[in-house]
Structures are given as structure tokens and as C-alpha cells.
């Protein structure tokens, strides 16, 4: 007998689901039986992934409250409810000396990485509480929020804020059975990799970064997706306030 899909009957929003980690998460969730709404600024790419996976997509700017309000309405109208929010959309600036970071760089990482989580929770927590849904938030943070490295100071700080806020909300809303966890990948293969490295994304430059990971490689979308699937599943019903490091031992 085939095992029951781990997310059967669940409905999820995955932000930034058109590429990278987000696409990996959406793929895994669909494979495990979830109904998924991909939310991404890249309309064509999002629709392409949705067609490939057999799920839904919509254009959304995660830094705008009205877009989160529309996302909630859209997912409930289409699927009847919402169970899981994966805050995967993120941004960084090019690896540089901290004194060279501009206000635009700072605003980018704080708005996209932190404000988006604030907006998602402020819009969707009342829905979970009002509908008595034991919902689940998963934030894609970073090892940078746990073990910060030079030249990405304010990106590091934005991810540390996400991890801290996730833990605080986990305690605050435990009485409503709403769970909050974060996943912190080590550097992997995404559209932002060259920004983290601060050099061209060549095999040689990537190898220098990956040599710092005890297990000898960067994270993949499948690694991150597997972690998210566990945290979203009923297997993790007693897991909240956790930052799951998907880092090959980098944070040790």
C-alpha cells in the first residue's frame, strides 16, 4: 500500500514560488498532496511553474498589505481554506563592506525579508484564529541569521529578525494551535547566489564557499523543500518556535 501523501487535504501559499527554493517547496508540497497557490512578482514564470505542477499562481508584492489581503481572499475563494503560509520571498544586496551599504540596500532587505513576514502574519493570523484553524507559518530565513558573516551585515540582521519574530509568535499563538517555524539554508543555487558570493558565480568561486560546509556542498531546493514539508505536516504538530538549520553542519 502506498503511503498517504503527507500534506493531503492542506492548502498552502508559497511566496517567491516561481524559482529557486520557492519552486522546490511548491513542487514538494504538490507531490505530497497539498493545494498550492504560488505568489510571485514574476507573473510569467509563476504561471509556467503552476502549469508544470498543476497548481495555481498569482502576482503579488509581499511588501504590500493589500496584496496579502487579496492573497488570502484568492486562496480561500479557490480552495475553500488556508492552512500553510511559506514566506520564502527574499532579497539581498551585493556582498560589500558595511560602510558601503546604501539606504536603498538596507530598505530592500528589511522590507522584503522582514516587513513581508509582518504583513503576512498580521493579515492571516486573524483568519486562522477566527476560523479556528491550526495554521502553520514557515519562514525561509538563513544561516546568516544564526552565524553572520562579514560584508552582509544588514542582510544577516534581517534574517535574525525573522528568526526571532518567528520564535516570539510561536509562543504568543500556541494557545490557538498556530505554529511558527523557520528554515535556515546555507548558501545554495538560487538567483541570488552571485550576490552572496560577491564575485561571478563560477565553479571555482562556489567551491570556495562550499568548502566551508562540513558536508561539502551547498543546499538545494529539495533540501529546503523536504524541511518545509516536515514542518508543514502533521508529523510536526508538536514543533513550534524552531529554526531548522539546513546547512550541512555549517552552523556548528
UniProtKB/TrEMBL annotation:
Signal peptide (UniProt feature, chain positions): none
Keywords from the UniProt entry: NADP, Oxidoreductase
One Gene Ontology molecular-function label: oxidoreductase activity
NCBIfam families per UniProt: PRK07231.1
Name this polypeptide is given: Uncharacterized protein
